[in-house]
Design brief:
The protein is α+β, with helices and mostly antiparallel strands and 295 residues long. The protein contains eleven helices and eight strands. The protein has a three-stranded antiparallel beta sheet. Strands 6-7-8 form a three-stranded antiparallel beta sheet. A two-stranded antiparallel ribbon has the order 1-4. It is rod-shaped, with a radius of gyration of 41 Å.
Length: 295
């Protein structure tokens, strides 16, 4: 018996998932969606009958009030005497409602985009930054978006602002500047879990801009400049060291061949003559200078 009950419950859960879409729904939601029309009671049926009679009496004028068209990207939630009709959301297409007893609410199923206003956030390392972002979401279950919350759009916007502050409050400034993609995924997961009971699916979250205080920008710029200067000095020192080694090797090569020094003299004269034509240079052998110094 227990196995049979489990099989029945699994079939029932699959049927509800096909009908209402995936997600976590409470027993109150399922009961509201699955109430048959007979639950309106005797007085309700009398009112429905009077509504049908009124429609028939006022034909063909009443037909324009009873026919509703739902667009391809919309779903219609029909309330009859305050109760959602069996089957949940309707659409798209042409629908027939009764005047006086039925009311209809259209829900847009397209992806909605909104900007998160800049939020002043105190990071984990006590730095105040201003961060804004953008959120993409859509209504996944129109019935829950109407029955479980007053204004799903406003609630999602407010929740996105608080989630942005909460997530960034656990990060350091360096993590906020470098791990934007990870922060966006964390926000998307948190928002998606929170809005699941409202029939909302958060598709994407992006961090747009991170604004730092002016004093912190100057401090970071000074730190970066000092780091670059230190690297430049190290590179210049390494260049001098390599150049001195090359000059040492060159001097050893020239010392082995005296004619190489004469060729170097001629090459220097050629370079000076090409750049400065008015300069006259007379090469003086070092041997003559040494002879004069001995005297």
């Amino acid at each position: 018996m227990d196995s049979d009950n489990e099989v029945v419950s699994m079939k029932e859960s699959k049927r509800r998932e096909r009908q209402f879409g995936p997600g976590r729904y409470s027993s109150h939601d399922v009961e509201a969606l699955e109430n048959p029309d007979s639950d309106i009671g005797l007085c309700g049926w009398l009112l429905v009958g009077l509504s049908v009679m009124l429609m028939l009496v006022t034909l063909p004028i009443s037909i324009w009030m009873c026919i509703k068209i739902v667009k391809e990207y919309e779903r219609a939630i029909i309330f009859r005497l305050g109760r959602i009709l069996r089957g949940g959301a309707k659409g798209p297409g042409l629908f027939f409602i009764l005047p006086c007893t039925d009311s209809l609410i259209n829900v847009d199923m397209r992806t909605i985009t909104f900007d998160i206003p800049p939020q002043e956030v105190l990071t984990k390392d006590s730095v105040t930054v201003s961060v804004d972002g953008v959120v993409y979401y859509r209504v996944q279950n129109a019935t829950l978006a109407v029955a479980n919350i007053t204004n799903a759009d406003a609630a999602t916007r407010l929740l996105a602002q608080t989630t942005l502050r909460n997530v960034l409050g656990t990060k350091n400034l360096a993590e906020i500047l470098s791990d934007r993609e990870e922060i966006a995924h964390s926000m998307q997961s948190t928002l998606d879990d929170a809005t699941d009971d409202w029939g909302i699916k958060v598709e994407r979250v992006e961090i747009k801009d991170v604004k730092l205080p002016l004093q912190l920008q100057r401090a970071m710029a000074a730190e970066a400049e000092a780091t670059r200067e230190a690297r430049a000095k190290v590179i210049a020192a390494e260049g001098e060291m390599n150049a001195s080694r090359a000059l040492k090797e060159a001097s050893l090569v020239i010392a082995e061949s005296p004619s190489a020094l004469q060729l170097r003299y001629l090459q220097t004269l050629n370079t000076i003559a090409a750049e400065k034509n008015s300069t006259i240079i007379f090469p003086l052998p070092l041997e003559m200078m040494q002879g004069l110094m001995k005297r």
